[in-house]
Structure formats: C-alpha cells, structure tokens
Amino acid sequence: MAQLTIISETGMFHSVCRCTWPNGVKWYGFAPLKHREPHGQGAVHTESRAQYINHYISFDIADFLLQSAIKSAVDKYKDATYTIGVRDCVSFSADVARGCNLAVPLVNMTPWGLIQILRVNNYTKLQ
User: Fold this and answer.
1) Closest Cα partner for 88 from 36, 32, 33?
2) Where are the beta strands (DSSP E) in the chain?
3) 74-84 pLDDT per residue, tens
4) Residue 90 in contact with residue 31, Cβ under 8 Å?
C-alpha cells in the first residue's frame, strides 16, 4: 500500500504531492519555470519540499493506482503552460487526487482549500 500526501507550503502558496511507496518517497509538483510568474511555461518538479510543509493530508492508496495517477498527471503537465487559477500547482495536486479516486470538485482552490475539501469530501482526519 502506498500513501499520497497533499501538502500546502508555508510562504508563497504552493501545493505538492509526496508519494510514499514501500521502496521510497518521491515528490511531484507543478510550477512556472520563471519563479513567481503567474502565467508562462510550466514544469513538473520532483525535489523534496519537506522543509516548507505547513499543512498536509494523507491517504492510503493502492500502489498501482497512485503510480497511474502520477504518470497521468506528469504526462498532462510536463509541457503545459502554467496559469495561476487555471492550470497551476493546485490543479496538478487535484488531478493526482482524482486519479486516486478521491472526491475533488472541478473548481480550482488554494493549497489550503484543497486540503480542506479533500478532508470534507473524503472523511479523512486533517493533519
């Protein structure tokens, strides 16, 4: 069994996914190539964001389902244009959650808002 953790970061609002499998941890997020640009070329990043964790929520997910959700999101976002509020870090995390069959509305939210709605829609204790 794997674990998907959706994270809201301190400082500049940002959402990332931490995927924990029996053989290790991998991070995934989507951000603009030019730091703090609200619109422009985006890229999937995989560096650890552990030092920036503000709030998070975790779900146990079947390994194959989490791998499929991550692959689908990475393929969708790898060459995408980053547009805040349209296709951004939160929509990336939400797409991963949807790919894991979690209930997530189609509206875009803040990173903290995504965690709250995941908690409410999926009856999971907020951490």
Assistant:
1) 32
2) 2-9, 15-21, 24-32, 39-45, 53-61, 81-83
3) 999 999 999 99
4) no
Cα–Cα distance list, 76 to 69, 70, 88 (Å) = 11, 10, 12
Cβ within 8 Å of residue 59, ≥6 positions away: 3, 4, 5, 97, 100, 102, 118, 122, 124
Residue 118: CB atoms within 10 Å: 24
The closest alpha carbon to 98, from 57, 68, 55, belongs to: 68
Residue type, 35: H
3-state secondary structure (DSSP) of residue 22 = coil
Give the tens place of pLDDT for each residue, 92-125.
Answer: 999 999 999 999 998 888 999 999 999 999 975 5
